């Protein structure tokens, strides 16, 4: 299937750079995807934008109004995604991460947005995002508090799921901080999955369940896939090549466990694309984009789309690379072999024969 599609110059150049700069060779897994969460969502990897790596938990809107976590930021990102080609190539979700909440729940026990930073509330923000033909994601936590210390969902799973549905939320990123036991962690992820389904609204469910299980014992990925649309396995990505290398090393070291469970409806999530920020060279940005595409990973950018270079924009919007990521067969690539200090020749459009045999099972 890859052979038939390996026609344009752009795809050969991008994927060729994987061989030149990355020390790894990936091939599509020959195993079909397992059956997953039956909500009909994420049949191809989720594409969109997430605020965390670039904007973190900046709540100081008085001194930094253009980079704090606020309604203003998400309205501006929605406008750009709709008007500047991002939606057209498949980036659909605008995702709010931690630090959007008020410090306390309301009088009825519901989560609420910080009233100063989100004066219109999440419902109005969702309406605006939807009016642009996009979808809104939001963040919550399975434990007593979020990782940044805002109210967690423990004991409130049904209330929070219904609140998100009432607001018009389309994706939930569910973190795993401040949970007092592995049993509560696992049960909480299951309960929120069921609670989301009971709302009757289509909400993609992004879990961090295995990330918090690995330090204690190997997660049951068959079970995780029954409840989640995609799941984080390893530490947060940061804007550095070493961070990306660490993620790739972990992924390839555990590929026999994680690759067979990935497929339509359920995906391994190596975390955000940091292309367009400050920490990666041009070659390293190309490498991240190519490998995330081959790994059938969610493509969730974390950058400032208001101030992105033409080169980074062209890379993130490359339709041929995106087509590999969005292949409906949904087979995740895996590392075939690894070599240290290998110097490979540059690969040009005329040298397809050097790489196609490595990509076709």
Features:
361 residues, alpha/beta, 8-stranded parallel sheet, two-stranded antiparallel sheet, disordered C terminus
Question: Can you tell me about this structure?
Answer:
It contains 16 helices and ten strands. It has helices spanning about 1-5, 10-20, 50-55, 70-85, 85-90, 120-130, 155-165, 180-200, 210-215, 220-225, 240-255, 255-260, 280-295, 310-315, 320-325, 355-360, and strands at about 25-30, 45-50, 95, 135-140, 170-175, 205, 230, 265-270, 300, 335-340. It is globular, with a radius of gyration of 20 Å. The strands form two sheets. Strands 8-7-6-5-4-3-2-9 form an eight-stranded parallel sheet. The chain has a two-stranded antiparallel ribbon with strand order 1-10. Residues about 1-35 and about 340-360 have low confidence and may be disordered. With about 350 residues, it is α/β, with parallel strands linked by helices. This is Alpha-galactosidase.
Distance between the termini: 9 Å
Q: Strand percentage, roughly?
A: 5-15%
Q: What structural class results from the helix and strand content? A: alpha/beta
Largest sheet: 8 strands, parallel
Q: Give average pLDDT, whole number.
A: 87
Strand order of the largest sheet: 8-7-6-5-4-3-2-9
SSE string, helices as H and strands as E: HHEEHHHEHEHEHEHHEHHEHEHHEH
Radius of gyration: 20 Å
Give the overall shape, derived from the CA principal axes.
Answer: globular
Q: What helical percentage do the residues reach? A: 25-40%
User: Which residues form runs of ≥5 with pLDDT under 50?
Assistant: 1-36, 342-361
Q: How many β-strand runs?
A: 10
Number of helices: 16
